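Bench notes, bay 3.
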Amino acid sequence: MRIAMVGTGYVGLVSGTCFAEFGHTVVCVDKDEKKIESLKEGKIPIFEPGLEDLLERQIESGRIEFTTDIKAALKDVQAVFIAVGTPSRRYGRDADLSYVYDAAREIAQNIDGYTVVVNKSTVPVGTGEEVERIIREERPEAEFDVASNPEFLREGAAIEDFMRPDRVVVGVTSQKAQDVMREIYRPLNLNETPILFTSRETAEVIKYAANAFLATKITFINEVADLCEKVGADVQQVAKGIGLDGRIGGKFLHAGPGYGGSCFPKDTLALARAGQKFSAPQRIVETVVAVNEDRKARMADKVIDALDGNVRGKKIGILGVAFKPNTDDMRDAPSLTIIPILQQAGAGIAAYDPEAMGHAKTMIEDVEWGNNPYEVAKDADALVIVTEWNEFRALDLNRLAQTMKTRCIIDLRNIYKIPEMAEKNFHYVSIGRKEVPRDARPALKKASGA
């Protein structure tokens, strides 16, 4: 089939490339001429493992092309996907749908024969109806249907998620549109992937509800971690104990500094707003949003407490600034809250991230950026693990002990074992786990070998 993708951001680029891998012919359209020219050369504007190689193969095969000409892009297509941004408005909790509606108007002006217009962007319930109204108003004679096909892509694992999804959700209003969408996803039949056809409104709610539920699991285990710290329990064992229950499951039960990224913060806000709009308050989700924001700030307090309540004039090394590993995404990353609070308390910050420093440098000021963890740790009073990149999981503790001013590590991702850190005489602070008693370690003594 011939498919058009309006928008070449994260969702549009991953989806378009993977549809081409399915064997479809894909035309990706974007107004950004510079981006389009880079994409024609196989250069991608984001970091996503495996995407650049996959895109290069599709370009060589001729199954994918890039253009700024939407009229040409829509010629002879059976479906056009809207994959533009829907950020939260600067003031308020509503999703900004202006890009979606602008795309709908341009599609209406250039539609060529019967076409399924598919909302791939994450949108509030009722958006499909509004897109249909806009197109009908612009082109009353046009033959089209509007469908909702939300994405469920994890940054860092997006290709795997697209090619081998848990499920595909499609909201349609006609059998004709359903047949087109079924044909688009036919390559997934080999894996027996469930394809759930629903109403448009149901599909729109599924996307927000799924992300809100996962955000709730994260926030739940973070609050349980606080209790564990007070009573001497181990949150990792608690998570394992409840996760073995098939009704609960072990995923998204990893205590940490709070969720971030492009989806959870935006989507929980949007679902809470939808509840208010339709007089069906989403009180659990509203609480999740508030607790998560507070948690990020409390992680900075945790660092300050680890240094006896005073970080003025002290050097703190930060390992990882992206909101999660295997991405360069800084949107709503915990580091964007933690670092400024530490700076306001008088600390000097050195930081390193394998992929996100380019973006971070435009968002965080007065940071000394290192080339590796050991540069950041040199003469540091404390080292804080904020993002659990794999290269941070096997740090040379003897080398850190020799290079740091103070053997103090605050591990906000629980990637190290307490006995291991105690053996190396580190003052080790983690999340929801009992610390080695302070008098049993040289917590704030100058590091001097292993």
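Next record in the batch:
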Amino acid sequence: MFHIISLSLLIFCFFQTNVRAESSLQPSQLSGKAKVFNPDISANFLGLLQRGTKLSDDRRAAPYNGLSLQEAEIQFTSDVDPYLRAVALFSLAQEASASKVSFGIDPEEVFLETIFLPSVTLRAGKFKMALGKHNQLHSHTFPFLDSPLILQQLLGDEGLNEVGVSAAALLPLPWYSELVFQGFSLSNQDLYASPRSGDWGGLVHFKNLWDLSDDFTMELGASGTGAKNISDQTASVLGGDLTFKWRPAVGGKYQALIWSTEYLNGYRPGKVDSTTGESLERLGGVAAWIQYQFAERWWVQGRYEYIGAPHAAALMTENKQSALIGFFPSEFSGFRLQYDRHTVQDQERADHRVALQYNVSIGAHPAHAY
């Protein structure tokens, strides 16, 4: 509650300061000057109604059966000057608590990036690292209601979202080709958690996009990251992703098809089963999904996931299948109904889950990455 009140007061004071500043201007000056004082502000929130065979009925344990606020985000974006752009995005989500339902506010992304260098973008702050494709997405832009299993198991619920620096360069090739180098602090508890503040991790990401025709594009990406873990050993993740998009130049408002797959392979030296002491070092998995838009506001999707390619002997392989239907009245609101079937090796019963999500955005929301 303290966090919520603090953020509310911060936003209130911010608006009050700008209102007083603008009140001294003449009416004819307001339209042009207001933008100078105010950054672009947007808010997004996700509501979720779900029922699952293995979900808890206790509201203090998130996620749980019933209606919940999945996540809310508020984002401030503005050009600082002709050289820099600033982004500050804060997320609110339920935290685990043994005594009550509580929410916490976290700085999901807070960074500066350059806007004056041709073909090169430099960034510094806290942001989602360029590991694969899905790790760079915010919750409200996920293709499905949840992130892939392999990403959750390797990197946790938040993915690889660290304080660091980044340099992205467009290569002089006849197609879109981007090479990204990033360095980051080690605060990911699931993979990288060196106790020494001087230890840094490194990441490289190579992305290519080809226009195969006026209607058809192909994207191919490869990435890798490595850093010290809590055992003072070097952990790593390698990944690759492939995406095809079809949207006809004529009638593309009503019809589109996307197929995407992503593979991650993690090496976690020193990680063992707390009960048996067996090694859990190796873990790899794939997620593949397809989306078909069949009307202006409707689409259907299917996803298949497999965990265990490769996997340590002590780990069980997992399979998950998901089906989704989405209805989006506009780019600012949407409703999605998803069904999941999740099976684990040697377990007799599968986990079944049905979830209905509403997704609402207000304000000057920045465009999402292609």
